[in-house]
Amino acid sequence: MYKHIKPLTSLRGIAALFVVIHHFSYYTLPKTGSTLLAYSDFFRNGYLWVDFFFILSGFIMTHVYVGDFSLKVNSSNYRSYLLSRFARIYPLHIFILSLFVGLEIIKIFLLPTSAFTGKFNLTALFANVFLLQAFDLNCPPLFWCDTYWNEPAWSISVEFVIYCIFPFLLFFLLRNSPKKDLIIYSFTLFSILLLIAFSRGNLDSIIGIPSIARCGLECVLGIITYKVYHRGNYKKYFNLNLLAIIAITWIILIMNYYWSYWRSLHDWLVLPAFCLLILALSVNNNGVISKFLSSRLMLYLGTISYSIYMIHWFLQELLKIFWFYEFHKAFGKGFTEYEILTSLGAFLMIVLLTASLTYRFVEVPARNYLKSTIFAKQ
After folding, report:
1. Cα–Cα distance measured from residue 77 to residue 68, given in angstroms and rounded to the nearest whole number
2. Diameter of the chain by CA atoms?
3. Is the CB of residue 287 less than 8 Å from the CB of residue 239?
4. If exposure means fewest CB atoms within 10 Å of the residue's CB, which of 36, 38, 84, 366 is most exposed?
């Protein structure tokens, strides 16, 4: 049985909220983004927290499955692992996808716009049902896809691909010496820089098929980071609280600015800081940061983080449709700065409340049902 690393659960919730703020501020109500830019570019760079998710996923999955795949990968443990991963991500995905279908049906009756067209076409729906939304071969040049009904769900499509190869990846990487780990980590970082530089110049645009490389490479960073954590040698030489402060300061300094000219380098530089933050907080200690992240409220935020991440885009679409139907104008048109910030706060509360409900009544029951009934017979 693996040990629960509480601060990392809480970090997942914080990262999910940052993604929500980024999406609301720059897609639903862009005036919010303009207002926030007067203070910082932190939330403009919010898409980088998806890369934090990928690194953290590699770390946590290694923590959970290191005992299963350190010696061998056979059909039995591989099947059990893959079914568990499927049960983790798919039920909530398909539930929210059904909500989007309902929203398209509502458009037919309430709005003077066409339903099931554009990104909400039936071909894209088919791809989403089968977790293939990242594989639109018509995306020129395979870097920008219009197949995501639920925009954040592009990441679970590529994550599931990485899930399929993860046990084999783990099996081979666990055998490396610390020196080889350093070489692999450096090579992986350099590969990500090349991926950014020779695709679209920033991590935000690397979706579709190239995002498989984005997710896979960052997963490797997470695995190597876990191996450092597992060895524990760094604790002899470094103060964990100091490491956490350095990592947080590093992240804030990068996220606070938006380098238009050196965009690829900007996005790349934050990745080692994410690794350092995960490493520093993976050991529970009596520091202020660890205590805060281990509190019940923060742990609950992390517990419902997947629901937060998956439901918020639907709520954005619902809000825009409702607002147009009710007031016959785009959401946020004519808003004052006070109304803009109030809208953001209210939206975050709605997301948290809805995510709590979907976690309790959809995510957990569906996952448990799959594991205890259908998959138990496999």
Report:
1. 7
2. 66
3. no
4. 38
Instruction: For residues 50 and 15, give the distance between their C-alpha atoms in angstroms, rounded to a whole number.
Output: 8
Task: Give the position of tokens 């956490």.
Answer: 244
Q: pLDDT tens, 129-181?
A: 999 888 766 665 555 567 789 999 999 999 999 999 999 999 999 999 999 99
How far is C-alpha 196 from the geometric centre of its chain's CA atoms?
A: 18
| Angle 186-190-196 from CA coordinates, rounded to 5° | 150
Looking from the CA of 324 toward its CB, the CA atoms found within 13 Å total 14
Max mean pLDDT range (13-22, 67-76, 106-115, 280-289): 13-22
Residue 49 CA to residue 23 CA, distance in Å, equals 12
- How far, CA to CA in Å, does 196 sit from each of 41, 48, 138, 187, 336? 20, 13, 21, 14, 37
| Rg of the chain over all Cα atoms, to the nearest angstrom | 21
DSSP 3: P
Please tell me the pTM assigned to this model: 0.95
166 CB-near residues (< 8 Å, 6+ apart): 61, 65, 219
Q: How many CA atoms lie within 13 A of 205 on its CB side?
A: 16
Residues belonging to the chain: 378
Show me where the domains of the chain are located. 6-377
